[in-house]
C-alpha cells in the first residue's frame, strides 16, 4: 500500500522553476508514485489534495514553508526519496549555467551595469512592489511579471513611474517586446510597422504572432498588466503606451488589446486613441462592437481579426491627416440637424453617431431618453425622421413630397448653432420623380443664408438608388454636389464624416496635456539591456536573444521578515 | 394683412397624392401665401399649426373630414381660391392617365385578371386589413403599404397567410422586389444571386442599391414591415422570407436587414438562419456585433458593410456544406472542456462560444453567473484557465509546466459526456522548451482512452507563436497533428470550429418543421402580375417596369361607415 511522507522546511525561499525541477526529480525516483514540492499556501494545499497528496504536516504548513510531499510504493521508498532532497538541490545548483553577469542585489547590479535601462522583476508577489520601487528610484523602466501585488501598491508604483516618464509594465504582466527583444513570455516577432499596447499577456503574444504569421512585424509590444484598465488604476501604463506609439516614427499602426476595461476607462482610452494621429485597431475582447470604423479607430471582434486589420491598414496608411477645415465655421456653430425621409437610414445614423457625439435627440430615437420633446422643433444635435406617422398621416411620404423637408431645412439653416445639416435622398420607383431638382436649390439657398450671416453651413447627403432608377443616381448626385452638398452613396461614410466633423467642432477644448511625463523615446530606442530579478529563465531568454542582462541572485530582504523589510524600505525612501 | 379661410368637407375620402396635388395647386394661385389640404387628424392639425395655418374650423374638424385651409394676402384672394376647389378636383381627374386595366373593386379586378398573384394595398390604414383579408381569401400574396393598421389585425392577417403559404409583406412595408420588379418604393436593381429579407423599408432599398452599385444584384427583396419582428407578431413574414430564400436555387447568399428585433425573436430568427444552408449576412442595425462570423452567419455593423459582405461572399460560395462527422461521436457525448494556459485566449474562447452554446462554465468567466463552482471539477461545458492564481501560487505557470494540464486532460478524457477538449499552446521565450513533445503523447493517450470506451474524442488546439520561436511553430503543429489533434494558429478559427461541432451535437433534435405552410416557389418565380388598391402611382410604377397591373378605383365600402363595413366583413367571411 502506498505511503505518503512529508518534509517541511520553514522559511526557505525558492523560485517556482526550482520547485518544479525538484518535484520532477523526486517523482522520477524508483518506487515513487507522485511528488509535490510547493510553498505551503492554501491553494497549493488544495492542489495537492486534488491529486491525493495529503498529510497532516502539509495541512499544518504556513505560506512561507517549503513543503515536500512524496507518495511511495513503500515507506522505505518514500523515506529514501526525502533523503535525497539536499543532494538534488545541490545538483541543480551546480548544473545552473555559468554566467559572467551575476550580482547579489539590484544595487550592485546597477553599479556594475549602469547602461541597463530595464528591470525585469519576477520575485514573489509580496516582495515585488519593494523591488519595483527600488528600480524606479534608479530611473529604470520596470517589467513586473510578479502577480499577487496589492492594487494600492500598483497605484503607488504607477504614480511614481508616470511622474518620472518611466513605464511600469505590470504587475502580472506576462510579456512585452521592446526593440525586437521579448521580455518574460515572448515570441520572436520580426520588426515591423505595428505597435501594440496590451493589458492581456497571451493576447499580446497571440496578436503579435498572428501579425508575424501574416508577414508583417512590430515596433513595440507594451504590456500593462490586466488591472491597469480598472477604474482604480485608471490605465496609467496603457495611456503611456499609446503616447509612446503615437510619437514613435517607426509605428505606422497601433493595436490595443485587452479584456473589456471599466466603461469609464474604455472611454478615456479610446478618446486618447482618437488623437493618436495614426490608425488604431481596437480589440477589447467581448466589448460589443458598434462600428467597424470610428475616425482613425478600427474595431475588431476577435484578436485574429485585429491582427488582420492591422496588417491590412499598414498597406493603406497614407500619412495624410484628414483636413476638416474647421476654420470655415463661426464660433457657436456646433450642432447637427438630420432631416431624413428613410426611417432605417435615420436610425442607423443615430447608431453610428453614438461613436462621435454624447447625445443625439430624435423623434424616433434609439433609446427613449433621447426622445425629442417636440418633433417639430430641433434642439442640440437632432435627427428627425420625417417619414414617421406624426408627419405622414393623411399626407404624402417625404420620399414623394419634399415640401415639409425643405421648410425644415430653411428653419435649421437660420439657427446660428447649426454646423451640419444631414439629408438622405432615396430615389427609385415610387419616390419623387426628381428630388434633387427641388432639394438642390433649397440646399444652395440654405448655405447662402448661413454665409450671409457669417457662418459656414455644411450640408451632407446620402443618395440611395441606382443608375437604372428613373431619376438616375448620378444625375441626382451631380445636382446635389452642384449646390455645394457633400454627397456619398454610403450612409456609413456620410454619417462618419459628419461625426468626425461634429466631434472636432465640439471637442476643440478637450485635447489636453497627458497626465504623465512622456517617456524618453531615445531610451526606448536603444538596444535593450536589463537587470533581472526572480526567474532565472527570463535572464536566459534575454541572453538567447543576445540582449545584455545581469541576473541578480535575489533573496528576500531581512530573511523575509516583514517588519524589518518595512523599516528598510523607509530608510531607502529617505 | 393676411387672411386665413377654411373649408371642411365631411366624410370625403381622397388619397394623399390627391391631397398634395390640390394643396400645391391652391398655393400656386395668385394672392395665396400658403395652403394646407389634409384629413382632419390631430397630427395634421399640429402640422398646419407649425406653418401658421390655424383656424377654428380646422380645430373642430374630425379625422374623416377633408380640410382645406388657405392663407391669402386678402380675404378676397382666399375666398377666390376656395371657390376654385371643385374646378381643381375635376381638372385633376381628367388629367389622370387613361389605362385599359381599371376596375371598381378587388372582386371585379380578380375576375378580369385572374393571373395576378399579387395585391398591392395602400388604402388608408383603417380600411387596409379588410382589403388584405379579401386578397388573402382570393389566394393572393399581399404587399401592404398602408400604415396605422392595428397589431391585432396584423397578427390575424399573418395567421391566415402563413397557413395558406402566402406572404403578407407589411403593414407599413415600404418596398419589395419580386422577380426583378419593384413594389412600392423600389429601386431598379439588376437580377443577381443575393436575396434580402428586410423589416426596414429604406434599409432594403439601401442594401439593394449598394449591392447594385457594387456590381451584383438580387433575386428577391422581401419586405415584412417593421412590426413583424416584435414579440407579438413573432416574425411570421420574416421567417417565411428566410424559408423562401433558403429554397430558392438562384439565391446564393441571404441578407437580413432590420432594426434590432425583440431579443427572443432575434434569437429565433438567427437559429432559423443558421439552418438556411447558405451564407447569411445579418445587419440588425444597432444590435451589437459579437462576432464577425458564426457558422454560416456573417455579422455587419452597418448596412453598407452588409452589402459589401454579401457581394464578397457570393464570390466565395463553394456550395459545399461542412461535414462535421457527427456520427463518430457516441450518444451522450456533448460537452466541451477547454484547458487553457493563456488567460486572454480562454476569455476570448468563452466570448466566441456565446454564439454557439447557451452556457459555458469557467473559473475566470465572462459573467459571474457562469462561475465554475469548483475550479478543479468541470461540469457541462467548461473552460478552465490554468494560469489563474488559484493554480499558480508557488507553482510554475502552465505555459512552462504541462503537468497539471496533462492530469486534467486525462480526467476529462475519461468523462463519457465529453466530446471536445480544447487546448492552447503558447510558445516563445519563457514558455516550455518543447510543449508539444509532452502534450502530443497525452493527446494521443486521451483519444485512445476514449476510443477504447467506444467514444470519439475531438481534441482541438490553437498554437500561438512564430516560425522563429525557439520551439518552432511548425514543428509544434506537426507534433500535435500527429497525435490526432485538430490544429489552427487562429483562436477564432479553432473556437468557431468547436462551437459548430458542439452546437450540432447539442441541437440534433432542435430542427423542426417551420410553423407555416411553405410558399409555392413556382408562383413567386412567375413574372409578377398584380392588382393595385390605393396609391395610383404604385400601379404606374409597375407599368413603367412592364409588369401587368389592374388598378382598382377603390373607395371605402359603405361610404366609410364603420358599422356597415363590419357587417359586410362578417357576411364575406361566411
Assembly category: homodimer
What is the number of E strands of chain A? 23
- Count of domain modules of chain A: 3
Strand order of the largest sheet of chain A: 9-8-11-10-12-13-15-14
Q: Which regions of chain A contain 5 or more consecutive residues with pLDDT less than 50? A: 94-98
| Sheet with most strands of chain A | 8 strands, mixed
Report the average pLDDT across residues of chain A. 89
Cα-to-Cα separation, first versus last residue of chain A: 61 Å
Beta-strand content estimate of chain A: 15-25%
Global Rg of chain A: 32 Å
Helix share bin of chain A = 25-40%
Q: Structural class, judged by helices and strands of chain A?
A: alpha/beta
CATH C-level label of the largest domain in chain A: Alpha Beta
What's the overall geometry of chain A? Answer: elongated
With helices defined by DSSP (H or I, 4 residues minimum), what is the helix count of chain A?
21
Amino acid at each position: 500500500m502506498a505511503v505518503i511522507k512529508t518534509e517541511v522546511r520553514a522559511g526557505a525561499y525558492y523560485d517556482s522553476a526550482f520547485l518544479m525541477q525538484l518535484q520532477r526529480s523526486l517523482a522520477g525516483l524508483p518506487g515513487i508514485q507522485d511528488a509535490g514540492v510547493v510553498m505551503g499556501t492554501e491553494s497549493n494545499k488544495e492542489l495537492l489534495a486534488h491529486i491525493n497528496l495529503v498529510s497532516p504536516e502539509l495541512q499544518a504548513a504556513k505560506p512561507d514553508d517549503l513543503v515536500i510531499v512524496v507518495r511511495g510504493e513503500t515507506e522505505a521508498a518514500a523515506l529514501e526519496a526525502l533523503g535525497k532532497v539536499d543532494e538534488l538541490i545541490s545538483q541543480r545548483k551546480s548544473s545552473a549555467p555559468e554566467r559572467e553577469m551575476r550580482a547579489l542585489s539590484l544595487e550592485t547590479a546597477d553599479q556594475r551595469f549602469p547602461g541597463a535601462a530595464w528591470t525585469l522583476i519576477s520575485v514573489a508577489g509580496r516582495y515585488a512592489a519593494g523591488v519595483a520601487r527600488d528600480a524606479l528610484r534608479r530611473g529604470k523602466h520596470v517589467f513586473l511579471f510578479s502577480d499577487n501585488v496589492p492594487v494600492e501598491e500598483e497605484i503607488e508604483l504607477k504614480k511614481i513611474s508616470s511622474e518620472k516618464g518611466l513605464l511600469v509594465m505590470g504587475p502580472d504582466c506576462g510579456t512585452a517586446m521592446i526593440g525586437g527583444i521579448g521580455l518574460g513570455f515572448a515570441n520572436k516577432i520580426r520588426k515591423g510597422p505595428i505597435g501594440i499596447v496590451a493589458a492581456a499577456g497571451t493576447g499580446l503574444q497571440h496578436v503579435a504572432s498572428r501579425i508575424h504569421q501574416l508577414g508583417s512585424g512590430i515596433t513595440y509590444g507594451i504590456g500593462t498588466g490586466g488591472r491597469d484598465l480598472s477604474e482604480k488604476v485608471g490605465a496609467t501604463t496603457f495611456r503611456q503606451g499609446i503616447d509612446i506609439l503615437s510619437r514613435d516614427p517607426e509605428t505606422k499602426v497601433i493595436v490595443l488589446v485587452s479584456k473589456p476595461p471599466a466603461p469609464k476607462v474604455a472611454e478615456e482610452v479610446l478618446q486618447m486613441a482618437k488623437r493618436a494621429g495614426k490608425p488604431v485597431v481596437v480589440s477589447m475582447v467581448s466589448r460589443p462592437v458598434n462600428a467597424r470604423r470610428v475616425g482613425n479607430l478600427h474595431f475588431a471582434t476577435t484578436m485574429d481579426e485585429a491582427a488582420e486589420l492591422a496588417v491590412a491598414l499598414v498597406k493603406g496608411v497614407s500619412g495624410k491627416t484628414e483636413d476638416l477645415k474647421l476654420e470655415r465655421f463661426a464660433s457657436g456653430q456646433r450642432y447637427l440637424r438630420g432631416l431624413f425621409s428613410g426611417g432605417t437610414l435615420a436610425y442607423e445614423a443615430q447608431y453610428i453617431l453614438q461613436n462621435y457625439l454624447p447625445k443625439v435627440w430624435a423623434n424616433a430615437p434609439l433609446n427613449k431618453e433621447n426622445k425629442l420633446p417636440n418633433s417639430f422643433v430641433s434642439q442640440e444635435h437632432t435627427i428627425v425622421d420625417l417619414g414617421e406617422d406624426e408627419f405622414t398621416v393623411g399626407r404624402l411620404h417625404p420620399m414623394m413630397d419634399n415640401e415639409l423637408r425643405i421648410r425644415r431645412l430653411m428653419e435649421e439653416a437660420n439657427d446660428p448653432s447649426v454646423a451640419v445639416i444631414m439629408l438622405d435622398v432615396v430615389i427609385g420607383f415610387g419616390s419623387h420623380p426628381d428630388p434633387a431638382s427641388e432639394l438642390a436649390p433649397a440646399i444652395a439657398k440654405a448655405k447662402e443664408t448661413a454665409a450671409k450671416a457669417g457662418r459656414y453651413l455644411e450640408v451632407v447627403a446620402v443618395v440611395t438608388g441606382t443608375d437604372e432608377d428613373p431619376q438616375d443616381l448620378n444625375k441626382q448626385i451631380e445636382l446635389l454636389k452642384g449646390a455645394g452638398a457633400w454627397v456619398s452613396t454610403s450612409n456609413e461614410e456620410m454619417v462618419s464624416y459628419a461625426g468626425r466633423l461634429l466631434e472636432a467642432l465640439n471637442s476643440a477644448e478637450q485635447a489636453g496635456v497627458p497626465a504623465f511625463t512622456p517617456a524618453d523615446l531615445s531610451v526606448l530606442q536603444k538596444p535593450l539591456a536589463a537587470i533581472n530579478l526572480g526567474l532565472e529563465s527570463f535572464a536566459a531568454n534575454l541572453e538567447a536573444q543576445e540582449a545584455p542582462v545581469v541576473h541578480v541572485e535575489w533573496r528576500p530582504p531581512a530573511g523575509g521578515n516583514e517588519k524589518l523589510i518595512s523599516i528598510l524600505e523607509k530608510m531607502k525612501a529617505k
